[in-house]
Amino acid sequence: MQGSVKERIRNNARDKQGKIRQKIKVYDVYYRYTDIATGRLKNTVKRGFLTKKEAEVFLLEINEQQQKGIFCQPQVILVKTFLDDWLNTYVKINVRKSTYYGYKRIIEHHLIPHLGGFELKKLTAVDIDRLYAYLLQKGRVDGKGGLTAKSVQYTHRVLNEALEHAVKKKLIYYNPVKGITTIPKPKPFNGNIYTADEILKLLTIVKDSMYEVPVALAAICGLRRGECLGLKEKDISFEEKTINIVRQLADVNNKTIISEPKSTNGIRLISAPDEVFAILEQHIKKNHYYKQLLGKEYDDQGWIVCRNDGKWIRPILFSKNFANLIKRNRLKKIRFHDLRHSCASLMLNSGVPMKIVSQILGHSSIGITADLYTHVLQENKKDAAKNVGDMLFGRDKE
């Protein structure tokens, strides 16, 4: 094997777990390569491997690449160059379109402007700590203050995923994100929800309107906004009393697109009360009436929630109009998505097992359901404790 591995001691360096050590052994790889421009041999070194095995594997790969004529000269890679390449060669082909644009927005607005000029292998945890602190104080693109902790946490997740990719590709040998101290922690979600009576009142208000179906599906069946708007007639089985969730409408980069549900578990078959199917059936009949009335001018793509001419409704406009509806009728202020939370709370309070609730909602894991509805579970625990006490000590429940 051409080249050598040399051991040395680094002071106040991080180990593989990201902990600072006063002294730590590291390994440097020394090797030679032919400069393409001059044809001369050059000596170089790759420093800082945390184990001897990693250093030897790297040297072996360098030797094999040179023998096969596929060796690339050592080069300085900027964070900007790496993130652009990762976004277009990995993210773009491995995630949903809406997720890709979310990553793209974070990289272009928050990561590249502040870290893009750094050399990738010299990026440190201190640099990242400073970035997060800045974003929390002054990170808004419009210059009007800082980002929320949740927005900075999304940035943190994207950067961590990107740098883990760089580690796997051996562009760096340690992910500096592991050593940061300012990971933002958003406050637990505590949105407004509607009680059963408030849901019934809302359903009365929206009866026979374009809002009736989505309100019923969100508040009674737990569907997301995009899933309500993406439902088609062929997804409904009136015989089996089931609804097949296989797509959603989403606003991405100022355009409405059809995509799969949020996660693989989002593709699901759910049941619903007879009252929901009665609402669906009535609304489908209404759509057929407009189809017959408008003839060729009706854009028949099978949407259930649609405009009178059959065309889909943009999710962003639906939410704005729903907010106006709530305000106009002087109802308790909620977002449309809060109807889904209301449904989950009603199910849990009525004794539906957590696993079943998670499956109905289409969460990717039961842990997500538990984290979102901790407050409901806490109340259920209190009720459970009281019930056990009543049974053991013969308390009068009246």
Average pLDDT score: 87
Instruction: Could you tell me the CATH topology label of the largest domain.
Output: hpI Integrase, Chain A
- Could you give me the name of the CATH homologous superfamily of the largest domain? Intergrase catalytic core
Anisotropy-based shape: elongated
Structural class assignment? alpha+beta
Distance between the termini: 85 Å
The total tally of domains equals 3
Please supply descriptive tags for the structure shown above.
398 residues; alpha+beta; DNA polymerase, domain 1; hpI Integrase, Chain A; 3 domains; three-stranded antiparallel β-sheet; 14 helices; 49% helix
How would you portray this structure in words?
- The chain is of the alpha+beta class.
- It folds into 3 domains: 4-68, no CATH class; 79-179, Tyrosine recombinase, N-terminal domain (DNA polymerase, domain 1), CATH 1.10.150.130; 196-380, Intergrase catalytic core (hpI Integrase, Chain A, Orthogonal Bundle).
- Helix content is 49%, strand content 14%.
- It is built from 14 helices and 8 strands.
- It has helices spanning 52-68, 79-94, 97-115, 125-138, 149-168, 196-205, 212-221, 225-229, 274-294, 315-328, 337-349, 354-361, 366-372, 374-393; strands spanning 4-14, 20-34, 41-49, 236-237, 242-245, 248-252, 255-259, 268-271.
- A hairpin with a 5-residue loop joins strand 1 (4-14) and strand 2 (20-34).
- The mean pLDDT is 87.
